[in-house]
Amino acid sequence: MFPTDVESVSDANLNVYRIRGHRPLVGRIRAQAAKNAVAKQLVASLLTREPCRLYDVPDITEIDVVLDMLAEIGAACDRLEDGSVDIATPRIASTTVGERYSGFNRIPILLVAPLLHRAGTARVPVVGGCNIGERPIDFHIDLLRKMGAEIDEDDEGYTARADRLRGTVIALPYPSVGATENAIFAACLARGTTVINNAAVEPEIVDTVLFLQKMGALIQIDTDRKIVIEGVDRLSGARHDPVRDRIEVASFAMAAVATGGRLRIEGADQTAMITFLNTLRKIGGGFEVDPGAITFFRDRDPLDPIHIETDVHPGFMTDWQQPMVTLLTQAHGVSVVHETVYEQRFGYTSTLNDMGANITLTNDCLGGKDCRFTDRNFPHSAIVQGATPLTGREIEIPDLRAGFAYLLAALIADGESTIFGTRFIERGYVNVPERLASVGADIDVPAQLLARDRPVAVPG
Ligand code: EPZ
Is the CB of 174 inside a 6 Å radius of any atom of ligand 1? Predict the structure, then answer.
């Protein structure tokens, strides 16, 4: 059963969810470990020959694909009954990451540095990920070259060679999550010291740094987005309990507020979510923080509108934006959301409008934050006029986080919604229908509606 083949991931998971709205969600949900930390920690395990263990690895297709990729490289991966994954790569069996992984996610480019450290060469396909903007990898290529890698690019991918990477000073043009992780992986075993200026400091990155520290790495996170890594000669195996998924926590939190319910989310971490919690409070969402859990509920009715600008951590996450826009359709008045991380992350709003929302997009920067998309003709600000009742309908999901925005819309809509393309949700969220049903959602996965005849979008 394991690891899952990427092609079967593309072809399978053609489930359809059917949701009848207006049920308050009440109960408990256990937060899963963050996929965007776990995936990188599995990659980090390649930096040693010794076995590593990650606890409570989410059983989602994104992780299955990463494990599949690593198995082809030579990793022995074993998912234990308690949800842990044991992974060990005593020798690199192949330095080529198959082209079939092209376009699925961002992981192949993160494999270059570990493969260079272990084998001196790497061949990876062009990368993909959710369809939310151009998503170039120029920062990755530039930093690897600066650290001594020779990289040839062709239409299908990248071929890299290096005897030993060397430490250097890297100034990222933007605090990219993936480029910061790439630089860290490259620097851990490089000769000398690497300084990453303008680094991303997302909690998932800090969590991967904790894992690497256990493995023997010397990584200092300084003030002002500066990360300093002193290269060491070898890393050893380690065990790690990954940080919880703050995107998932926020998604369920918004579902509790939107439906007028009350959800206790176990494992939710306040420190990773300060901006989200402030935002939720301002619009009328309530929360109580207990040791090891946060309970979310509706504090005011109606909800108030707000102005939000997405940003890198510690700002308002771009991955919280989509369900938040759905929630804001239920706030009385005009909300404004300025997306500054991705240029094309409002495509999903047209379906919300079809359900009854009143959302207008504009190319203007509606906010004061520095924005790379000024004057570049991307519809990257949204004006949400609420409150508007939503009506259930057939919905096709375009990407992972838009998927949850649609689930949320269906949960508060009048009538029934039929949601296609749920493989995008299953890519990042564990057992969503079962967990939503366990807290009172009227949701089922009708076998007779399996989307045999629907067009199958390519993952990513
Ligand atoms: C990670 O993507 C996450 N993915 C994304 O989550 C998340 O939205 C994003 O970080 C921001 O928090 C994973 O961790 C697997 P970036 P990543 O490099 O690393 C530009 C989800 O739904 N950029 O920080 O790919 C880029 O185009 C996913 O879970 C360059 O221009 O994001 C974007 O505008 C979606 N050149 C911005 O930086 C580069 O070489 C931020 O991207 C690299 C990035």
Answer: yes
pLDDT of residue 5: 41
Instruction: List Cα–Cα distances, 283 to 259, 296, 301, in angstroms.
Output: 14, 13, 10
C-alpha 391 – ligand 1 centre gap (Å): 33
| Residue of 40, 139, 153, 174 to mutate, ligand 1, most atoms within 8 A of C-beta | 174
- What the block records as the tokens of 179 is 């480029």
* Residue 24, both tokens: 């308050």
For 353-384, the pLDDT digits (tens) are 999 999 999 999 999 999 999 999 999 999 99
Question: How many percent of the chain have pLDDT more than 90?
Answer: 87
Amino acid residing at 321:
Q
Indicate the pTM of the whole model. 0.94
- Residues linked to residue 265 through DSSP beta bridges, in sequence order: 29, 294
- Tokens 């929302």 sit on residue: 357
The C-alpha R_g of the chain, in whole angstroms, comes to 22
Residue 341, SS3 per DSSP: coil
- DSSP at 431: S
Task: Write the DSSP symbol of residue 32.
Answer: P
More confident residue, 83 or 103: 83
- List pLDDT tens digits, range 183-218: 999 999 999 999 999 999 999 999 999 999 999 999
Kindly list the distances between the CA atom of residue 40 and the CA atoms of 15, 247, 316, in Å, as whole numbers in the listed order: 28, 16, 22
Starting at the edge strand found earlier in the chain, the sheet holding 150-153 runs 121-125, 157-161, 150-153
- Compute the distance from residue 135 Cα to the ligand 1 centre, in Å: 7
